[in-house]
Amino acid sequence: MTQEELPLPNLLRPVDKKRCDYVQTLVEFDPLANEKWYIHSVLAQCFLPYRDQKDEIFWNRENGNVTLNVTAGQAKNQSGKMVTLGLPYGAKPRLFLSKIQTEAIRNQSPVIPVETSMTGMMKDLGFKITGGKQGTIGKFKEQTSRLAACRFRIIHDQKGAAGTLSRNVNADIFRSFELWFPTHPNQQTLWPTEIKLTDDFYENLKEHAIPYDFRGLKHIQNNARAIDIYLWMTQRLYRIPRNKPLFLKWKHLYEMFGGGISNSKNFPSNFKKALLAARTAYPEARIEEAKEGFIFKASPSPIPKTRIGYGDK
Predict the structure, then answer these.
(1) Which of 45, 138, 158, 303 has the fewest CB atoms within 10 Å around its CB?
(2) Per-residue model confidence as pLDDT tens digits over 146-183
């Protein structure tokens, strides 16, 4: 099988040049305390949808013996009618969710104080603030609403001599999450003064939080697939044995970073582009492209890790 190192191109687009300039910053400086963010290990292995799943209310993402099951929730609209909000998707709920987990770890508390305006939170996440029907404010409102309403479950399969034991765990993240959406997004009543995580999720997060350098995501923050690849590599590559590289075929990569209603024919091309972007946030990642997939090799950890739980590929 012919294998070759996945190179960075010699002729880069401006956005790629900007990302590569960031690599030098990563190499020369250690992460600042306020740039060290956290995410639960399961959410660095099993991911939310990349696109709107339309009328689908269930989402399943499998990685090894762990499956993340997400169910769309309901809420009252302005007329007082209960409506299904849909599944969260894209980069915005990913970064918002990581922000909440980061604050919980930093403060060592399941109670997270939040900004008094939605635009303050968006700026903290690095998003531009634009209004209008296609602006970022409306999209951020929609995604946080979907995230707050949905339900999470984790299924952990354990194989034994007698068969397979499937352990189902309710993994709802939020104990309470109020969403106030006045006409003007900068009004002080837009956000509650705090968000509360469930006790179970918070205690589990403390055991299985993965630190990463948020500066890397600032340059790929609008690319949800690149975010997922970066977070997965952050928690996986440093654990690969040096004498036993991890080979993932296109089928496995599609199960992890594709699926849903996306077009599987376009997946290889889309994955390669996202992988290239993710590598600028993790320049030490050692990867080879193979005929039927990619080979991931033992790589230096980009940032010291905490304990990591649950199974994976």
Answers:
(1) 158
(2) 998 899 999 988 887 777 788 888 889 998 876 555 55
Burial profile 286-311: b = 16 or more Cβ within 10 angstroms, e = fewer: bbeeeeebbbbeebeebbebeebbbe
Q: Are 279 and 289 in contact (CB under 8 A)?
A: no
Which residues lie across from 63 on neighbouring strands? 66
Spatial strand order in the sheet of 163-170 = 58-63, 66-71, 151-160, 163-170
Cβ atoms of 99 and 37 closer than 8 Å: yes
| Predicted TM-score of the model (pTM) | 0.81
> C-alpha distances in angstroms, 234 versus 20, 171, 187, 239, 273?
18, 23, 38, 10, 18
Kindly provide the b/e burial profile for residues 251-274, where b requires at least 16 CB atoms within 10 angstroms of the residue's own CB. ebbbbbbbbbebeeeebeeebeeb
Is 306:211 a contact under the CB 8 Å cutoff? yes
The CA distance from 80 to 74, in Å, is 12
DSSP string, 61-127: EEETTEEEEEE--EEE-TTS-EEE-----SHHHHHHHHHHHHHHHHHTSSEEE--SSHHHHHHHHT-
CA–CA separation, 287 vs 299, rounded Å?
9
The first and second tokens of residue 93, run together, are 């709920």
Contacts of 87 (CB under 8 A, 6+ apart): 48, 49, 52, 53, 56, 57, 59, 70, 72, 146, 150
Q: What percent of the chain has pLDDT over 90?
A: 43
The Cα–Cα gap between 12 and 70 comes to 38
**Which tens digit of pLDDT belongs to each residue from 104-117?**
999 999 998 776 56
- At residue 153, the 3 state secondary structure works out as strand
- Which of 256, 289, 286 is CA-nearest to residue 47? 256
For residue 27, how many C-alpha atoms fall within 13 Å in the half-sphere facing its CB?
9
Helix (H) / strand (E) element for 196: namely strand 194-197
